[in-house]
Specification:
heterotrimer, A alpha/beta, B alpha/beta, C alpha+beta, B: alpha/beta, Rossmann fold, 2 domains, 8-stranded mixed beta sheet, C: alpha+beta, Alpha-Beta Plaits, two-stranded parallel ribbon, two-stranded antiparallel ribbon, 2 helices
């Protein structure tokens, strides 16, 4: 018996947060993006945040489709440019809680420059990067995060380029909150996102997710379950670990956890404080939050 | 859309002696622009510098982004947050902005970009004048879309046309361009800024109906959809993918047809309201000189010489360069012997004149490849030839 | 029906009812694999997309942990708390807080 006969037909509580007219989504069977989106929706629910003030911006790619499925002010911008778009949104309306939800190729490949500068400036946005180690939407090409020796469609004899360690990159650029999880750590991803909502500044959460159709298939890693098992067996939680030690080798150990959590005034606060100090009463403050 | 008086906080009323770049910044502030995201590039940097110096006293944000791509994308974000947003650039930066100009056109986000043109291609002549991006502003991004471009010929016009550009952008929800050049940008002249209540500023069409009935891209009677801003609870989605009225991506030929026609027709069908030009003595002219920007001032000297020599010359100065005033050119082509088109490029707007003239009158180009303005004698000799 | 465990007097473990939208399922198997009580298994039937959706094989064992709901990538699964239908005489049944 799969359905209880109750007085009313129960609705999946996630439906309030999703554009149900666009479900089912386009992601493959076993893809981790749906799981990360579920964790995100759970965090929205639990943190009781004003949904009218949340804006989601995503780029191009599989993860970039997330904006189309959430029932919030959502923007699907061009490849790699989700972060400057979010910058404009946040500076245009400082009351918004702006979330950038995009993939590894989009955020640190083509969007690398924007990532670096937004973190440097401590722009008050939350960036959730779903890392599946390749450019999935276009057919599984090598990305800046692809591990050494992995097989990808533009590295068919194995990848010989060094990849990024995303928490290291975010930390080095000045992010105030850096965490990494796999999509299997569902509750911890939700908790991280909830925590991040409470913080200010450039917050970065990397979530490693399986890409069954491309990365896993090309490397003969099995399906979603096989990859989740790999995450289960090989991920180790080390909160506060040194971000210099977080490299992921091919099918190697993954260190997850919350690595950086510090206070640093975000861009608008810096602007207001500084200009008030220098210009005195003549300065007209902008976007000051209580 | 609503027409309102300018916010006096941003209006520097009075008579000033300033260059075109500064005038653009002042025009932006007068029009209500409170968000500027830019990147330094000669010869446009002065506009950014002026804006950042003034904005702390007006109330708004200036941010120097990491590159032009980020600048134009931030503008689109700020536009969706409800702000009037602008950036300024020159040739190389303009090329970088192209992809996201397409995004702004597709999302129908009102933004204003000023291109203070310089000699190109590539790095070209950073500190010297050119007018070589006139076709690029129209066709630069991929796909079929239309934009509005204005061309001021003096710092005073830089001020006036910047306000115009914002008004047009907000009215038609389209990226609007101010195509000046290094000469006008760096030329110091008198700029009179009127009091705030004499400046008319347009607010975009805000949607005021029930939240659950909002369709982001449903065209109104005037073909322009209503806009909302992020944070007001409409929870809409918008994308650079081909989309339908709900803003949802629909990937098929029918939706593409609807989308492309909508983006283009909203400008084409309203072209008569948008197009502006300045005509002089064209009624019985044998030759009409079509020019824009700094070249129109040089051409006027040539026209004076020609008139002294007895040639009946008319002038048509383009104020809106795009949409192009084809109807007027077509009408003039029936009567004149030839059009003379001096421009500081190797042949761009002359192609439009030729197209609009449809063979009825030749369009003779007076090229100058950049780095300086025309010698009026050269333009005069072409006019003489054309009049024969 | 499995033995109703009682803790600390009247506390009873929570029970859940699992709602499965069979046609949304893409047969990834995450819910089956990660249910801590082995309540789900892949069924023999096919759904509209040609996948085998899960079905509840051991409903009384569901402890309302909602892990299947959280791990499903398709939003196809959710769990509601089963309210106690009967009450013991004179004693009120309480769920663990």
């Amino acid at each position: 018996m799969t359905k209880d006969v109750e007085r009313f037909e129960p609705k999946n509580p996630m439906e309030d947060f999703l554009r149900m007219d666009r479900i089912p989504h386009i992601w493959c069977s076993g893809c981790g993006i749906g799981v990360v989106l579920t964790s995100f929706v759970d965090a929205l629910r639990k943190s009781e945040i004003d949904l009218n003030k949340v804006a989601v911006v995503s780029g191009i790619g599989c993860t970039g489709r997330v904006a189309g499925y959430v029932k919030l002010d959502s923007y699907h911008s061009t490849h790699g440019r989700a972060i400057p778009f979010a910058t404009g949104l946040k500076l245009g309306n400082p009351e918004l809680q702006v979330v950038v939800f995009s993939g590894d190729g989009d955020l640190v490949g083509i969007g690398g420059n924007h990532f670096v500068h937004a973190a440097r400036r401590n722009m008050d946005i939350l960036v959730i990067c779903v890392n599946n180690f390749n450019y999935a939407m276009t057919g599984g090409q090598v990305a800046a995060t692809s591990p050494l020796n992995a097989n990808l469609s533009t590295a068919p004899y194995g990848n010989f380029e060094y990849p990024f360690s995303l928490p290291y990159l975010a930390d080095a650029c000045g992010a105030t909150y850096v965490a990494r999880w796999t999509c299997l750590h569902i509750r911890r991803v939700t908790m991280s996102i909830q925590e991040a909502f409470q913080r200010k500044g450039f917050r970065f959460i990397e979530v490693i997710a399986p890409c069954v159709t491309l990365y896993a298939r090309r490397n003969r890693l099995g399906d979603g379950l096989n990859l989740l098992k790999y995450y289960h067996d090989n991920s180790e939680i080390r909160h506060g670990a040194d971000t210099r030690t977080l490299d992921i080798g091919y099918q190697g150990k993954m260190i997850v956890g919350k690595f950086v959590d510090r206070e640093k005034p975000p861009f608008l606060e810096c602007m207001n404080t500084h200009l008030k100090k220098v210009l005195g009463d003549k300065y007209v403050p902008y976007g000051e939050q209580p | 859309m609503k027409k309102v008086k300018a916010d006096p906080k941003g209006v520097l009323t009075g008579a000033h002696y300033m260059d075109g770049d500064f005038a653009i910044a002042e025009g932006a502030l007068a029009a209500g622009c409170r968000f500027f995201a830019g990147y330094p590039i000669t010869p446009s940097t002065e506009t950014a510098e002026r804006f950042v110096e003034r904005i702390p006293f007006v109330g708004g944000v200036f941010i120097q982004m990491e590159d032009e791509i980020a600048s134009v994308t931030a503008l689109i974000g700020a536009s969706w947050a409800g702000k009037k947003a602008m950036t300024v650039t020159s040739g190389p930066g303009f090329s970088l902005m192209m992809e996201n100009i397409g995004l702004a056109a597709m999302m129908e986000a009102p933004i204003v970009i000023a291109n203070v043109q310089r000699g190109g291609p590539s790095t070209g002549l950073p500190t010297l004048v050119g007018q070589q991006d006139m076709m690029q502003v129209r066709w630069g991004s991929h796909g079929d879309y239309k934009i509005i471009a204005l061309s001021p010929d003096s710092p005073q016009e830089c001020f006036d046309l910047t306000i115009q550009a914002f008004n047009l952008s907000e009215t038609y929800r389209v990226p609007t361009f101010i195509m000046t050049d290094e000469c006008v940008g760096h030329m110091h002249e008198k700029v009179v800024i009127p009091p705030a209540d004499k400046i008319e500023v347009v607010e975009r069409k805000w949607y005021e109906g029930p939240k659950d009935k909002y369709l982001p891209y449903k065209p109104d009677k005037d073909m322009i959809p209503f806009m909302v801003k992020a944070g007001d609870g409409y929870r809409f989605h918008t994308t650079g993918l081909t989309h339908d009225e709900r803003g949802y991506p629909v990937i098929n030929a029918e939706c593409q047809d609807w989308c492309v026609r909508h983006l283009n027709d909203k400008i084409t069908k309203n072209a008569d309201k948008i197009i502006k030009y300045e005509e002089e003595q064209t009624d019985h002219a044998e030759v009409v000189v079509v020019s824009y920007g700094i070249t129109s001032r040089v051409a006027y000297r040539a026209v004076q010489l020609a008139r002294k020599a007895g040639i009946k010359v008319g002038t048509l100065r383009l104020i809106t360069v795009w949409p192009f005033p084809e109807k007027r050119i077509k009408a003039l082509a029936q009567k004149v012997k030839a059009f003379v088109v001096p421009e500081i490029n190797y042949g761009q707007m002359v192609l439009e004149v030729e197209r609009a003239a449809a063979g009825k009158a030749p369009a003779i180009h007076v090229p100058h490849c950049g780095g300086g303005v025309h010698n009026p004698e050269d333009v005069f000799s072409v006019i003489k030839e054309a009049a024969k | 029906m499995a033995e109703q465990k009682i803790y600390f007097g009247n506390l009873k473990p929570k029970r859940g009812t699992i709602h499965i939208d069979k046609n949304r399922c893409k047969g990834c198997g995450f819910c089956v694999e990660y249910c801590p009580r082995d309540v789900l298994e892949l069924s023999e039937e096919y759904n509209q997309k040609g996948y085998h959706p899960p079905h509840v094989k051991d409903e009384p064992n569901c402890c309302y942990c909602q892990l299947c709901e959280a791990i499903c990538p398709e939003f196809a699964l959710f769990v509601t708390l089963k309210e106690e239908e009967e009450e013991e005489e004179g004693e009120k049944s309480e769920s663990r807080p």
